[in-house]
């Protein structure tokens, strides 16, 4: 009888210890970068929609994760999401701000039409000024782009605000289309951010 009680106690202790490990299992790891399964932005809980790696030629440039209020698998649904959103980027190699800015502009231009580019031009120029102040994005630097309804887009580098708040959701959606548009910067990263394998 005693032995059975000891076994029950050991089993219960094992299950309890195992339950403390569950949050760690919830994180997704991409190229050595961990993305939490959920985060808080503007008081709302966001879920990791998907994560992947931006590769250029054979080089891994950065790992990126997309967070939404609920998981979406189509570009249209992601762009129509009304709540807060976040794109989290961790650099896997050093990239000059000039190269990063050029890649950003190329991605924006390839996935927006002329009218939209004209509409968001003031915000695009402000965003460009942010990168003019940073000589380079170094390996392990973390860049986040948050959209908060009724406020705008805010960029952070290693947790510190950089640049001004950009109020138009059209700008944030144009930025998202760099990765999710018809001509994404990386054809493997797009399905990864949409929750694919």
UniProtKB/TrEMBL annotation:
<keyword id="KW-0449">Lipoprotein</keyword>
<keyword id="KW-0812">Transmembrane</keyword>
<feature type="signal peptide">
    <location>
        <begin position="1"/>
        <end position="26"/>
    </location>
</feature>
<feature type="domain" description="Chalcone isomerase">
    <location>
        <begin position="27"/>
        <end position="195"/>
    </location>
</feature>
<protein>
    <submittedName>
        <fullName>Lipoprotein transmembrane</fullName>
    </submittedName>
</protein>
<keyword id="KW-0732">Signal</keyword>
<dbReference type="InterPro" id="IPR036298">
    <property type="entry name" value="Chalcone_isomerase_sf"/>
</dbReference>
<dbReference type="InterPro" id="IPR016088">
    <property type="entry name" value="Chalcone_isomerase_3-sand"/>
</dbReference>
<dbReference type="InterPro" id="IPR016087">
    <property type="entry name" value="Chalcone_isomerase"/>
</dbReference>
<dbReference type="Pfam" id="PF16036">
    <property type="entry name" value="Chalcone_3"/>
</dbReference>
<keyword id="KW-0472">Membrane</keyword>
């Amino acid at each position: 009888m005693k032995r059975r009680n000891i076994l029950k106690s050991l089993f219960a202790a094992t299950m309890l210890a195992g339950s403390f490990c569950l949050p760690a299992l919830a994180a997704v790891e991409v190229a050595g970068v961990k993305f939490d399964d959920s985060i808080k932005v503007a008081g709302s809980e966001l879920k990791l929609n998907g994560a992947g790696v931006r590769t250029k030629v054979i080089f891994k440039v950065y790992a990126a994760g997309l967070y939404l209020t609920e998981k979406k698998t189509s570009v249209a649904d992601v762009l129509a999401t009304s709540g807060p959103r976040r794109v989290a980027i961790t650099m896997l190699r050093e990239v000059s701000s000039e190269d990063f800015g050029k890649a950003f502009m190329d991605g924006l231009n390839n996935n927006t039409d002329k009218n939209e580019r004209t509409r968001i031009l003031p915000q695009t120029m402000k965003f460009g000024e942010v990168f003019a102040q940073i000589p380079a994005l170094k390996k392990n630097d973390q860049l986040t782009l948050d959209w908060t309804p009724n406020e705008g887009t805010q960029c952070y580098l290693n947790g510190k605000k950089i640049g001004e708040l950009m109020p138009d959701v059209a700008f944030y959606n144009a930025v998202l289309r760099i990765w999710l548009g018809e001509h994404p910067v990386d054809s493997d990263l797009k399905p990864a951010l949409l929750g694919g394998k």
